[in-house]
Design a protein that fits this description.
This protein is an all-alpha fold. Helix content is about 75%, strand content about 0%. It starts with 6 loop residues before the first helix and ends with a helix.
């Protein structure tokens, strides 16, 4: 009895991954093994960088809060300590947005905790 292989499914799988690697440089876009390895490595980078993005944004928020707090005569750590002590529950993302886009609201928060 002849060997049975599901060539339709395997070819479809290869086509799907080669379609995902369109736009890559050189053999990474059209040589099956190279494209597959590149695509798999890209998934690893995507997973890693989803975590990295959160870290980067938190660092950006802290820098923005620190800059705005120093205009009010406080450091970032003094401001965050005062917020905690006053029981003001506001996260860094919102605080940074207030510091950048709504300076009067940020000043009001700083005045409240001083």
């Amino acid at each position: 009895m002849p060997r049975s292989v599901n060539h339709v499914a395997s070819r479809a799988k290869r086509k799907r991954i080669l379609k995902l690697t369109r736009g890559y440089f050189g053999a990474r876009k059209n040589v099956w093994t190279v494209a597959k390895n590149t695509w798999e490595k890209g998934l690893t980078y995507a997973y890693r960088d989803r975590k990295q993005k959160k870290r980067s944004f938190r660092a950006l928020w802290i820098q923005r809060i620190n800059a705005a707090a120093r205009l009010e005569g406080m450091s970032y750590s003094q401001l965050m300590g005062a917020l905690h002590k006053a029981g003001v529950e506001i996260n860094r993302k919102v605080l940074a947005d207030l510091a950048m886009n709504h300076a009067e609201a940020f000043k009001a928060i700083v005045a409240k905790v001083k």
